[in-house]
Design brief:
The complex is a heterodimer of chains A (897) and B (123). Chain A has 897 residues and is of the alpha+beta class. Chain A has 25 helices and 21 strands. The chains are: A alpha+beta (897), B alpha+beta (123).
Chain lengths: 897, 123
Amino acid sequence: MNLTRFRSWLKWMVKGQQLESEMETEVRFHIESRATDLVRKGLSQQDAIRQARIEFGGIESYKDAMRASVGVRWWGELGSDLHHGWRLLCKNPAFTAVAVLTLALGVGANTAIFSIVNAVLLRSLPFPHPDRLVKIVASNRGVGARDIGFSVPELDDLRSRAGVFDQVTATISGDVSLTGGEHPQRLEMLVVSPNYFSMLGTSAHIGRVFGPGDEEQGFADAVVISDSLWASEFGRDPGILGRRVQLDNDPNTIVGVLPPGFRHPGSTIATDVEIWATAGLKGNPFPEYDRSLRWVPGAIGLLKPGISREQAQSRLNAFAAQLRAEFANDYPAKSDWSIEAEPLQDSLVGNVRPMLLVLMGAVVLIILLASVNVANLLLARASGRQREMAVRLALGASRARMIRQLLTESLILSLVSGMVGVLTALAALHFVQFLPARIPRLAEVQVDWTVLGFALLVSLLAGLGFGLVPALQSSKAEIAVAIREGARGSGTSGKTNRLRGLLIASESALAVVLMVGAGLLLRTFWGLLQENPGFNPSRIVAASLWLPVPDNPEMDRYAKPEILNTFVREAVRRVRAIPGVDLASMTTDLPVTHLSRRVPINIEDRPDESRKGLFSEATGVTPEYFKVLQASLVRGRLFAEDDQPGKQLVVMVDESTARTFWPDRDPIGRRLSIGIGRAVTNLLWCSVVGVIKDIKNDGLDQSGTPHVYLPIYQIPRIRVLSVAVRTSLSATSLEPQIRREIQTIDPNLPVFNVRTMNEVIDGSLASRRFSAELVGVFAVVALLLASVGIYGLLAYMVSQRSHEIGVRIALGAMPSTIGKIIVSRGVGLTGIGVLIGLPLSGIMAPMISTLLYGVRPLDPGVFLTVPLILLVVALLASYIPARRAARVNPIVALRES
Amino acid sequence: MSLLDTQGEIVGKAIDLLQGTLDMLILKAVSLGPLHGYGVLLRIQQISGEQLEIQQGSLYPALYRLEHQGWITSEWGESDNKRKAKFYRLTAAGRSQLHAETEKWNRMASLIASILRTTPEEI
């Protein structure tokens, strides 16, 4: 397009309205001038005008050609298509409402789930070098123990000898008590190396973060707090910097507050980290500098720039091999100690990825279903408009032009739905923070341009998808047939009916896939609810305590076993005395919480090689604990008050641990040693005195980890304690009483997380509940969409063929036969859908196997129930149109035509 | 211009117009002085001695196309009967275009004429 033409085109684009009216004036001038001349030739005024118009020809088509001459016709047509489409939508409010709601549901669900997927999985971590940050994982691959933690010498070697990392920080999440306020409070603390923040590239919102000046052997004085703690505990006091606070009874200074968006990119114990402390991990109160004491649970590394993950991994392999050779005593050959560098983002969100992908898959199926349903609606409407189409085709409109107009209509529909959908999603996302599931990075969920772009894309694709089929179909209208059929009022050719049938069948197939997925997830979830946890969770209330760890071991009163044991006994006695409490006990770990400490185990009289690198989870309990839980003793005895320090050290094991450790022997009286606190070289042999039925300590969906139970009195250092009581009282009414009793003994102890055991179990299943119920809701939506589709097709069929039905009945067909024909059509199409959907589900189901527990991907129950439900619903959806068909009054039907 | 084929066809009483000739006739008509659309029609009929009858509406897409190409230009003025009308005038570009078209037409016409004159003896 050269400049002149472009200018002319632009003039039209900008001043289109004015030029349109000029065009009109010009044509009118022509016709009137011609009419005047014709009057002069002797015609009457009226005849002259008429004659002039005839001579001019089709005014509208010439105007169209004029627009085409300057290249603006396409725009003009788009404008008129939009106008026309909008008017049609407004003229059929019922149709529009159903279509928009259906699609908005699909777009809304997609937008909401995608915004979560985008924030959690797709966006890189909000740090300057997200691709260089890795979680360092140490494993004893030889015995299948992953992420076993580090000793401080190992961390030093990772920094100085591995040759892969720019920086390495330890991460030790833990509890800490904050005293000085109204109540002593338990906070989520993270102990890190001083370079933690500079490594992540985070600076403080106010004050400062840790720096080289905070290098100490033990804890540094400086602590940094989160924005939410600043708000909740200190009322956003700008004078917070320099404030002295008591943490585990040690004075510390708050030197900085982090920006609101900052979250520790790793796992935590219960909540987001509220307070960060830093330490050199080499002086009090930390254990001695010993390579075999792997008490640091985690480490994050910043890879050197320009080093690929593969290079890093191969260097780390060499590094691990070197250490294994150098310190053969600390790295038994059988355990095959190794180091991996896992991208930090993967380690953070890896466990929710399958779940989110399943949800994303579910909403994609929903939008497909919604599109098919709307396509069906459009087809039904298109057959009503067949005459309009045929007349326009007969008058010379091109097919391309017709398809374009129909597609414009669908696009208006999809864009309106898209907007409604995005608004729905925005509203839905307000509830995201209330989700019980612990999904990392949930706070980062927002509707940004990426999400809006996705919503637009989904809407447009859906619009094209559901618009194209009906558009192609109706523009193909055989003019003569359509005009004739249209005149007769039938309007549905056999071809359109077949196409609609196909859509219904595919809808059923999609619904089957979604329902099978939901069925598998729900069966998993229900199965877990039915799972025997090994104890009776009802009527148990638990509360957690934190015994402070002061920096100076001299100040640590609970380090002395006598004081600790006196405290435990006194606490149990006092809580037991609360009216309404039947039994009281203490434990280091509550069931299903997966917080147990993993400890190295040695088994006596087992060949030397096989006992290296064994691990077990160890839980300390008071004698009444198993009675509170109502767990059953299989052999031997429970612990007694007499199992104290200085007496024979004893342990109990659960049944499967007994089978693992002593497959062919009676475990009672056997001995094992547990490495707690001190080096494993200093073996303390404990005798097995009892075997308990398996208790699901690590979560209902976990099994296979060995468990040993110790008398709490024989464990030297304990920090986290939970009171567990059997009671008829509620957690809320017990909370103040438990707190009062504990703080009567020591006013500085925080009491937190008071809840019933059933709540603990619910919490452990929250993430499964979330995904199973959400997919379940999607499956119900799918079922509804499919049944609406079936109902719509049959109802339409009946109304279109009432004449034919009337004739049949008049000729003696039984109404019940007519009904049967209708029902069998609906159920038949669904059946075809089922036949397609089941193999599809069979292919898809194994993909979600990581989310299943206790259910096989091809679970026959689910694969039988789903088609049954769908067929029953199809039957119901067919019933109403069928009854209507059976009740067609032949006289009325025949008179109507 | 394919649009001319379908909509600019000339229904001649005696002579069918060849493709593209309507544009040339319009350029010629306005080269003799500014005209409004109806005036173009009248002038072509007048010059042709009423031999050509043009489908009247088809003039306008052609006028718009010629203006779009910059060969004619338009402005609003007053007609003989004191009414608002749009007048078209030839531009410099239009003049050379008319010249070129006329040349081409003449060459073509004499070529075709000589072909049609050919007798068997001349081959």
